[in-house]
Amino acid sequence: MANLMASTEQATAEAKGFVSESLVNPLMADTYQHDDYVFCLREVGKTGKESTDVTYLTNSEAFSIMTPISRGGSGLALMPLFSSVTAISDPKKVTTDATTDATTVVTQLNDIGLPLGITVWLDINAVNTNIEKQEDQSTYTTTWCTNITKAGYSVGYYYGNTPPCSCQPEAPISGGNVLQSVSCVSGGSSPLHSISIGENSGVCKIRWAYYSS
Q1: CB of 74 within 8 A of CB of 209?
Q2: Which residues fall within 8 angstroms of residue 146, CB to CB, at 6 or more apart?
Q3: pTM of the prediction?
Q4: Is the dihedral of CA 125, 103, 182, 67 positive or negative?
């Protein structure tokens, strides 16, 4: 496993980024950097430590994303996104399954080598799609967020996969370490979702991981 040389810092206000559900290579990143993109929201999921599934972020990919261009990498800041929400039909299992999903995320973040303190994003469309009742959606979200923050991370809500792209300015649950959502960037020719940080001026700041030599 590569040493990511990763630290965390407050995300730059109004910074522009992109969301990827597949492998990000330097060639792809270079295309976005020409349009002033500076960070990537990359999906983490339910895969083992040695998985070769390129759907989800791995240690080697994270190293490539954050390593400076001068050293052969992409030179981008990085934050994880979780969309692999367990489909739940039994209300009695919501809390247990949310805890299990959060534990999986924390284990993967440790395996990847990302630092404590970064913002982990929860895909709200995935919650709404996989959990039918609104009350259960709320329970899942609250439980998942609580477990992520207890593990030493902050939490943000990502709305970019909610069709049509309609990112909301505020998360549905306030307080603690639940952060303002990123907003969608309109226009552009990007095949991926483009997002921006916004002012990042709330009490709880959005934080990303970056290469620190």
Answers
A1: no
A2: none
A3: 0.84
A4: negative
